[in-house]
Amino acid sequence: MSRSSGDSSGAIITLTSDSITPITVQYIIMIADSGYFVIQQSNKAQLTLSNIEFIGAGTVKQEGLALLLIEYSSFRLSNNISTISPFVQAIRGQLEISSCSFGTSLETNLGQPAIQTSSQCTNIKFKQTIFSNLHSIITNGEQKASGAVIEMGEKTEVEFTDCIFIHCIDSSSDIQHSTGAVCIILKSSDLLIHQLSDEQTIQSTISFNQCQFTGCIGGSSGAIQSISNQSQLNLRLNIIIDKCSFDNCGNDNSIVGACWFDGQSEYNNYGDASVTNSRFRNCIGIKAGGILFGENMQPINAMNNVFYNNNIEYTKCLVTSDVFFSSKELLDQAGGISSILQGYTYEQNKQQSTIGQIKIQGFSSNFAPYLDCVTRNGTEQCGQIPCGGEMNIQPEQCEYIEDEDKDQECKQKCVPTLITPINECGCLPVNDPRQACKQVCIPTKDSLINELCPCFLIGDPREACKTIIQPSEDTPINEQSPCLALNDPREACKTITQPSEDTPINEQSPCLALNDPREACKTITQPSEDTPINEQSPC
Fold it and tell me: Which InterPro entries match (predicted)?
């Protein structure tokens, strides 16, 4: 189905405001180089778009109050054009996007975010959706991101679950308002806010659960940025990030590598952020590599996170920086640094002899070694917390010691050439000249499955990856869920290697219960205690 190029105001399908019967559209291809693919205007009838291939720079628009559900669908451009509007735009109502893909293995040029939602929306959900190779240069609009720009209003609830953002890059010139993957904006309705007393507050929540951010870059933040665009304290933003990973996000022009939470400086507190059970590796920014809790954002929880080689740019030298707190007052209100960062660890880069870094505005102390020690050994073996870590201590109560000579620290870091072995000098997050370090894996049908390019949960074109589900510790091993080649949490799978036809059968690589390519393993069944020993089931 397609719409004529001259009909820029119409849509291929419109569900009108007086529609009351739920509609499902499925298994078709829609092509539009501009204008609209679909418009949902109904306040009562749900519209479901399932298994649809959207091709071109058209838009799916949600204007009604009833749910718009998009599932098992893909969005991509054609003819090397660039978008002038989002692929999906929600003005109000409910939106759910499940098991979809935006972009391809090739670069997709965007003039607007892939997804844009307004503060009048209520429930927004993204599940098992992949955003890949989205490159945006946005000249209009207040906030910019290649993946999604989400406005949070007084009734907005947003969830990202099991989503993947890979190579989402915004190159807009306004770096103060440029995010690689997701930009969150807090906006209030003046009419509603004026009806509230000073003591009344409304809290809107956005959550990220088990999401992956890889190679995402923006001028302000590589992966996630939240900002306030309203002057009232009655509306608060609650950000929850749990079990997510951030790899190679940001660059030496980004203010923050991975996550930046910030509010307007003239107000006391516009919300809180929680980042837990997550991993940050090789992220880089000017102020912080990992997380920056900015002005007027309360760091409510940052427990059980792991950091490795996250850096700040210091006069052309990368200096490790995992977490930075802009407000000691808000940090103490939330329970203090020892409480907020329980379970903090950093993985040391042995080639570069780096350690983690955690800083508080106004204090020279690095709290990372102490907090890492407490996590690994307990408080009794780690001495006293550095000055500034205690509750209610002010900067003037601690001696400010200038950081050690950054030039000396620079000299200790490896500077690779084209032929420097990776085992002597690990891949740099940016500007590494070696071919093996230049890009994160974007798999094709013929790409090998290995440690550098494991199966993606969604949208992996390799045949061996298409039927694989993401197992938990309790997932049974069967045809639908055989052992993964890498990172399988099940105990029975942890020592199993992924064999080829020529892999010898031994203790390190016994026959797999399912899908073993070796001839000697193909007739072997998986025995139980009562299985007889015979040719079909030898020991």
Answer: Pectin_lyase_fold/virulence (IPR011050)
DSSP state, residue 395: G
With CA atoms as reference, report the closest residue to 109 among 137, 147, 68, 145.
Answer: 137
Contacts of residue 24, Cβ cutoff 8 Å, sequence gap at least 6: 47, 48, 50
Give the list of residues 6+ apart from residue 202 with CB closer than 8 angstroms, or none.
Answer: 154, 192, 196, 234, 235, 236
The pLDDT tens digits for 458-514 are 567 777 776 556 677 888 877 667 776 566 777 777 655 667 788 888 766 777 666
| β-sheet with 259-261: strand ranges across | 11-15, 36-40, 59-62, 88-90, 115-117, 148-152, 182-186, 224-228, 259-261, 291-293, 323-325, 358-360
CB 58 within 8 A of CB 86: no
- Are 432 and 416 in contact by the 8 Å Cβ rule? The answer is yes
Q: Which residues in 191-200 are b (16+ Cβ under 10 Å) and which e?
A: eebeebeeee
Alpha carbon 360 to chain centroid distance? Answer: 25
Tokens of 464: 């061996």
186 pLDDT exceeds 60? yes
Nearest Cα residue to 474 out of 455, 496, 492, 456: 492
Give φ, ψ of 193 to 5 degrees. Answer: -60, -40
174 pLDDT more than 70: yes
- CA-CA distance, 140 to 478, in Å (whole number)? 51
Query: What's the start-to-end Cα distance of the chain, in Å?
Result: 59
| DSSP β-bridge partners for residue 145 | 179
Instruction: Provide the whole-model pTM.
Output: 0.74
Span 409-420, average pLDDT = 53
Contacts of 173 (CB under 8 A, 6+ apart): none
Q: Is the pLDDT of residue 523 over 60?
A: no
Q: Give, in order, the Cα–Cα distances in Å from 412 to each of 46, 178, 316, 354, 409.
A: 60, 32, 14, 9, 5
Percent of the chain with pLDDT over 70: 74
Please say whether the beta carbons of 427 and 434 come within 8 A: yes
The DSSP string of 260-310 is: EE---TTSS--EEEEEES-EEES-EESSBSSEEE-TT-EEEE--S-EEES-
Tell me if 334 sits within 8 A of 298, measured CB to CB: yes
Could you give the 3-state DSSP secondary structure of residue 427? Answer: coil
> Among 172, 178, 170, which residue's Cα sits nearest to residue 255?
178
> What is the helix (H) or strand (E) element at residue 339, kind and residue range?
helix 337-340
The contacts of residue 188 (CB under 8 Å, 6+ apart) are: 119, 153, 154, 230, 232, 234, 235
pLDDT in tens, 92-140: 999 999 999 999 988 898 989 999 999 999 999 999 999 999 999 987 7
- The residues, ordered by sequence, that sit 6+ positions from 448 with a Cβ below 8 Å of its Cβ are none
